[in-house]
Specification:
Elements: H1 20-38, H2 45-56, E1 64-69, E2 75-79, H3 89-107, E3 113-119, H4 122-130, H5 132-156, E4 165-173, E5 179-188, E6 190-195, E7 198-203, H6 209-229, H7 247-251, H8 253-264, E8 278-281, E9 298-301, E10 304-312, H9 317-327, E11 337-339, E12 345-348, E13 357-362, H10 364-374, E14 383-387, H11 396-399, E15 406-410, E16 421-424, H12 425-433, E17 447-453, H13 456-465
Parallel strand pairs: 15-16
Antiparallel strand pairs: 1-2, 1-17, 3-5, 3-10, 4-5, 4-14, 6-7, 8-13, 9-10, 11-12, 12-13
């Protein structure tokens, strides 16, 4: 059988307008926005811009890069992407591939790594989502305890002034398209110390089940203590008052309602408002939360969960690449979406739930509501660095593989002063997707980038010349919804004019 490395890949233009996610938003977005306006719950601008950018992503009418073969003069074009952080499946896939490639080849030193996955109690999730400062503080508490674990293990074997590190990814969703902010923290499985003026790597004893149980207990106790100190909880752990949400959650009722409903697995708007999301499968009822499968190095207490069983050896760089792709992935995939014959949205779960549920069923408006809750508000940090990997750490430049390389890629191969990036655009495609877009598929010659076409008139002329449709996909207008009829019986009757008696 031909291996993955030996397979021949050719470039095929992406057609987002043919995917289920695009069709749903294309047909129902304006209706959803109009309904929220009619309810006096308008959707905030950053959410509208996210959806509008998605509807332009990968569409040639809104601009593209033009390439030409230097030998046979054959051309190909590549449409621009939206580069948003919300739900766009294509941009999320590019971002996860780019992040994994950059971290493995340029940043993370060749040492063992361990992943810590931390999830939070359901009542705390809305607080974390709606208050950035609270989330930052609780994130700091979690990472401090993990760093303290490594430091204490190092001190116990006689190491002086140990320095741990971490890179943390915030995932804000579950496989059910629900809002579930949790942390994937990747840590060098050991510590650095100073040796002969340079950082020296030191491995420590493997983590045990008792260590994980102790760690999750300390994390939960510290977080609860902090929440009591702020006056949000009483001494028994009962809610006394809610933290003040960020401005966007105070100004936009629609965001607050969709967030609460998404966390609870319910619907916020429309005829099914307040009901649980419809399940498909052999199960019945609703369990509020999917039962957490506890296993080796996985413990839960007070609603806090910590999983620490994923360990990667120093030389398993391919496996490290796969892990980073997993923790940097996007919330949805078109492969798991289906539009039913009745026009509803069917979402396949990654794994069967314990009650037998295999799919979830949404109306188009309910699905858009779920996507809205997953869009990160502005100034929300999704990746954070700590310890020796922090940007201001004196160790970082000495331990990272290529500290001069910045994340991202550039279109042309030339390197400008102070702008040394991870890859050129063509090398990034070749590295990640096994596609060499710089080679002509007809004669094998070099494809040269001619220009980035952005002028609307130039775009129209070029597409017509190539026999391509110059018009963008049609976005359906808002559907009219009949309002309630208000009949005031106290009002005087209008004269009906002359009436002929038929008797």
């Amino acid at each position: 059988m031909e291996s993955q490395a030996q397979k021949s890949f050719t470039y095929a233009r992406r057609r987002p307008e043919l995917t289920p996610c695009y069709k749903i938003i294309q047909e129902h977005l304006n209706s959803f926005l109009a309904e929220r306006e009619a309810e006096s719950r308008p959707v905030p601008d950053y959410v509208k811009k996210e959806f509008e950018a998605y509807l332009r992503c990968g569409i040639l009418t809104y601009g593209f890069i033009r390439l030409q073969c230097s030998c046979c003069k054959e051309e190909k074009i590549v449409a621009f992407s939206c580069k948003r952080r919300g739900f766009c499946p294509s941009c999320a896939a590019k971002r996860q591939a780019e992040a994994a490639t950059h971290l493995v080849q340029n940043v993370l030193p060749v040492v063992p790594y361990r992943q810590f996955v931390v999830s939070f109690p359901i009542p705390l999730r809305y607080w974390l989502q709606s208050n950035r400062k609270l989330f930052s503080k609780i994130h700091r508490i979690v990472t401090q305890h993990i760093n303290l674990y490594y430091s204490q293990k190092a001190l116990a074997i006689g190491l002086k002034d140990p320095k741990p590190g971490s890179v943390s990814f915030t995932q804000r969703w579950g496989s059910a398209c629900n809002l579930n902010p949790h942390l994937h923290i990747l840590c060098p499985d050991g510590v650095y110390t100073r040796g002969d003026g340079r950082p020296k790597w030191n491995s420590i004893e493997d983590i045990s089940d008792d260590d994980v149980a102790t760690l999750v207990t300390k994390v939960s106790q510290s977080v609860l203590k902090y929440l009591r100190k702020l006056g949000y909880l009483d001494k028994h752990g009962e809610v006394v008052q809610n933290p003040i949400p960020d401005d966007i959650y105070q100004d936009s009722e629609s965001i607050g309602m969709s967030t609460v409903a998404s966390i609870a697995g319910k619907i916020a708007f429309g005829p099914n408002a307040g009901k649980f999301v419809t399940r498909i499968g052999s199960g019945f009822g609703f369990n509020e939360e999917i039962p957490l499968a506890k296993g080796r190095m996985c413990f839960s207490i007070n609603g806090f969960s910590l999983h620490a069983n994923t360990h990667i050896n120093a030389l398993q760089r391919d496996r490290l690449h796969q892990l980073i792709e997993y923790i940097a992935r996007g919330p949805i995939s078109n492969e798991r979406l289906e539009i039913t014959a009745e026009g509803k949205v069917k979402l396949r779960l990654k794994t069967r739930w314990s009650d037998g549920t295999t799919h979830l069923l949404f109306t188009p408006g309910e699905f858009i509501e779920k996507l809205m809750a997953l869009i990160p508000p502005r100034k929300s940090h999704l990746v954070r660095w700590g310890g020796v990997l922090a940007p201001n750490s004196p160790f970082r430049a000495a331990i990272t593989l290529r500290p001069e390389v910045k994340k991202g890629f550039q279109f042309r191969d030339e390197q400008g002063p102070g702008k040394f990036k991870n890859y050129s655009w063509s090398k990034m495609l070749r590295q990640v997707f096994k596609i060499d877009v710089t080679k002509c598929e007809s004669c094998g010659g070099d494809m040269v980038a001619l220009a980035a076409i952005q002028d609307p008139d130039s775009i129209q002329r070029y597409l017509r010349h190539q026999g391509l449709d110059p018009d963008p996909p049609t976005i359906a207008p808002a559907r009219h919804r009949q309002g309630s009829f208000d009949f005031d019986q106290a009002a005087p009757a209008e004269p009906l004019g002359n009436i002929t008696n038929l008797d």
